Amino acid sequence: MKKNEHFTKTNFMIRLYVIEDHLTVILSSLRFLFRPQRDGIKIAGFSDSVDDAVCNAKNGEFDLFILDLYIPGYKPIDNIRKLKQHFPEKHIVIYTYEKSSSWRAKMMQEGAMAYITKDSTREELKIAIQKASKGEEYHSIVSNSPQHNEDIEKVKPGTVSLTPIQHEIVKLLSDGLIHTEISDKTGVSRSLIEKILSNMRTTLNVKNNIELIKLLSSTGSL
C-alpha cells in the first residue's frame, strides 16, 4: 500500500477543463504542448461557453479551468463570476490573445489565479497551471503593445495562398493531430513538417502554430 501511495503522490495529474470558442485549435495546441505521462497535465473536459460548462462539468472530474477571455455573446467578467459562483473550489487560468494589463488586473481581481497570453512559452504556461492548481497566483509580464495584433490584422481575407501540402499540414494540425500523426497521414517527414510550419510562421509574422491557424482561418485559407 505504501508503494502505491508514493506512486500517486509523485505522479499527480492536473486535469484541465477548457472553455474556449475556438476549441479545435486550442485543444490541439494544449495536447501538443502537454503529455500526461511527461508533464502531469491532461484535458479532462471542454466546452465552448461558460453556460455549457456549468451544465456539463462535473466537480470530481477536473481540477482547474482554462478560460478564454473573449467568448462571443458573453462578457469576460460575467464569465469568471459565474464560474466562481458554480464552482467556488475550482481555480481559473485565463488563457487569451489579449495583452492588455487592465484586463489582466480585472481578471486577477475577480479571482483568476493566472492570466497567460497564448504566445507564452510552454514552460510559462506549465508553471502557471501548476501554481494555479495549488491555489497560488502566477504573475507574468504582460505587454501593453498592440503591435503584434495589428500586424496579424493587416493580413486581409483572400491574400494568403497555400500550396496543397501546406494546406493539408495546417488543416491536420487544426484538427488536433500532432506532427508524427501528420507525417503518417501525408508521408512527409516530421522534420520537413516542422520546417514548413516554421517558414510559414516567419512569412506570416506569427509567433506560434495557434496564431498561424487562427490567421489562416480568419483569411479563409483553411
Low-confidence stretches: 1-10, 142-158
> What is the spatial order of strands in the main beta sheet?
2-1-3-4-5
Helix content: 40-55%
Instruction: Compute the CA-based radius of gyration.
Output: 18 Å
Report a brief summary of the structure.
This protein has 222 residues and is of the alpha/beta class. Helix content is 51%, strand content 12%.
Structure description:
The protein has 12 helices and 5 strands. With 222 residues, it is an alpha/beta fold. A 5-stranded parallel beta sheet has the order 2-1-3-4-5, sandwiched between helices. Helix 9 packs across helix 12. The longest helix is centred in the C-terminal third of the chain and has 15 residues, at 190-204. The model is unreliable at 1-10 and 142-158 (pLDDT under 50).
Please describe the structure with a list of short key phrases separated by commas or semicolons:
five-stranded parallel β-sheet, disordered N terminus, 51% helix, 222 residues, 12 helices, 5 strands, Rossmann fold, Arc Repressor Mutant, subunit A
SSE layout and pairing:
Layout: H1 2-10, E1 14-19, H2 23-33, H3 36-39, E2 41-47, H4 50-56, E3 64-67, H5 76-86, E4 91-96, H6 101-109, E5 114-117, H7 122-133, H8 147-153, H9 164-174, H10 179-186, H11 190-204, H12 209-218
Parallel strand pairs: 1-2, 1-3, 3-4, 4-5
Helix pairs in contact: 9-12
